[in-house]
Design brief:
Layout lengths: L2 H26 L5 H5 L4 E6 L4 E5 L5 E2 L6 E10 L3 E11 L5 E8 L5 E2 L14 E2 L9
The protein binds zinc ion (ZN) (2 copies).
């Protein structure tokens, strides 16, 4: 038997052996709610007030910057049709029903605004549009 054939046999064998376990694990693990799945289980980009960026799992409360200990918030992309993309910090909150929503947004270094108010382009005052295709980066 050629080496490749042996390799295929071993690989195929281990997949077959593992499948029941994987299946079992999937059956037993309760699926987290959508809100949990989309926030706590996803690594977001965070930015602190001093401008340090780092990656950490999503979290409703602010996370402390590992470098300077300031509050850090997730950052995401908003864009002005004329002036391009801006980084916007986002504050999440958990509603009474457990669902997750955006509590406030702000341009780096500016004041917080409610999501309804939105953020405006610092150059032309046009309202910025949320730009990232998917807030949590899944394709
Ligand atoms: Zn920092
Ligand atoms: Zn603009």
């Amino acid at each position: 038997m050629s080496r490749a054939a042996v390799f295929c046999l071993v690989l195929g064998g281990s997949v077959i052996v593992l499948l029941p376990f994987v299946w079992h694990a999937l059956q037993r693990a309760p699926l987290p709610s959508v809100a949990e799945r989309t926030l706590e289980n996803v690594v977001l980009q965070w930015k602190c007030d001093a401008g340090h960026t780092f990656e950490a799992p999503g979290h409703v409360d602010p996370v402390f910057c590992k470098t300077c200990n300031n509050n850090a918030y997730p950052v995401t992309g908003y864009a002005c049709p004329r002036h391009g993309r801006f980084q916007v910090q986002v504050k999440f909150e958990r509603a009474d029903d457990g669902s997750l929503r955006t509590a406030a947004v702000r341009l780096m270094g500016r004041d917080w605004a409610s999501e309804a108010e939105g953020v405006r382009c610092p150059r032309c005052e046009r309202r910025l549009k949320y730009e990232q295709r998917d807030p949590f980066g899944t394709p």
